[in-house]
Amino acid sequence: MVDTHLKTAAVIYNPIKVDLDVLRDEVQRAAADAGWNEPVWLETTADDAGQGMVEEARRADVDLVIAAGGDGTVRAVAEGLRGSAIPLALLPSGTGNLLARNLKLTLNDMPGSVTSAFTGRDRPIDLGVIDIERPDASRDQHVFVVMAGMGIDAKMIKNTDDDLKAKAGWLAYLGAIVKSLRDPNELHFRFRLDDGRTKRAVAHTVIIGNCGSLPANILLLPDAVVDDGQFDILLIRPGGLLGWIRVWAKVAWVNGVLRRTRSGRALTGKQKDDGDLSYRTGKRFVARLSRPEEIELDGDGFGKAAAFNAWIEPGALQIRVPADAQ
User: Fold this and answer.
1) Sign of the C-alpha dihedral, residues 68, 73, 79, 80?
2) Which intervals hold domain DAGKc (predicted)?
3) Which of 154, 248, 246, 158 is nearest to 205 (CA)?
4) Total Cβ atoms within 10 A of residue 111
5) C-alpha 151, offset from chain centre
6) Hey, which bits of the chain come out as E strands?
7) What tens digit of pLDDT does each residue of 111-163 get?
8) What is the DSSP code (8-state) at residue 121?
9) Which domains does the chain have, with CATH numbers?
10) 154: closest CA among 311, 253, 309, 299?
11) How far apart (Å, rounded) are the C-alpha atoms in residues 290 and 262?
């Protein structure tokens, strides 16, 4: 029986991504140590990545939702908790752990992550929301916690073999990157940023980011902050092979290494546009493509979009972080 005087956590887990026996032991230990009720356990399915489980958790009036799975589980659970006062605790698992990386959470300490879920503090972060218009003119709405993208990154995700990804992790993307780079098609689109005028653009890739770090020390959006109330937007259009080399050097070395330190930021100076990379910031980004293109959200493919309307919702998600986190 649930003691209504004690708090209750719901654990939403992807059975493919976690060792359930280990997870259950750790969560039950931490809940008991914190004086909470026995947790509610909710398993995701192939048809429901987490939104339906959040609805069950909210009906059970839980005080905390713990997401144990990959980036898709985190995104789906965040979508269900959008605008809710219920905090979300992350138990990093899977290939990317994108939000956990950007929040500088420990990735390989299950006991510590579980303990922090019950003893940490809550930090509000922004959510990206996107209305996608499909080629048949239908619309669907989703959230993203890290970034949305079209172009090379979305094609790369579509071209990645799921079985290889499960076995090789992030390395599985290398073959998909090569295949995607051979695609000569560019994105041709009209866009409007905030209340500005509509402009035309051509790019290989468009990234709309709530935060900017990826695995393999890649820092796509060095100035992105997860709780600043705005997007950081990147348009990539390199000129040939040398252009791609310059992009990689800037993303992997200048952003990924130099700009992570105070002395490095002083050396590189303020982030600037160049012929290959163009940066913008804003709270709403609306675009219409000349033809339907693949779109990805937080590293998962979401089919083709003919147009989209993306906006930021400041502080729309409460994240449980360690009590001593900065």
Assistant:
1) negative
2) 4-134
3) 154
4) 12
5) 17
6) 9-13, 40-43, 64-69, 88-92, 121-133, 139-144, 147-151, 187-193, 199-203, 205-209, 213-214, 218-219, 231-236, 277-282, 284-297, 300-321
7) 999 999 999 999 999 999 999 999 999 999 999 999 999 987 676 666 555 55
8) E
9) 9-119 (3.40.50.10330), 128-314 (2.60.200.40)
10) 299
11) 42
Q: Which two tokens stand for residue 97?
A: 């752990």
* Surface-to-core class of residue 280, CB atoms within 10 Å of its CB (0-12 exposed, 13-18 middle, 19+ buried): middle
The amino acid present at 27, given as its one-letter code, is V
Give the count of alpha carbons within 13 A of 294, CB side only. Answer: 19
pTM above 0.70, yes or no: yes
Name the DSSP letter for residue 307: E
Where b means 16+ CB within 10 Å and e means fewer, 167-198 reads eeeeebbeebeeebeeeeeebebebbbeeeee
Q: How far is CA 177 from the centre of its chain?
A: 19
Q: What is the pLDDT of residues 72-117, one digit of tens each?
A: 999 999 999 999 999 999 998 766 788 999 999 988 899 999 999 9
Among the listed residues 177, 50, 134, 72, the one whose alpha carbon sits nearest the alpha carbon of residue 303: 134
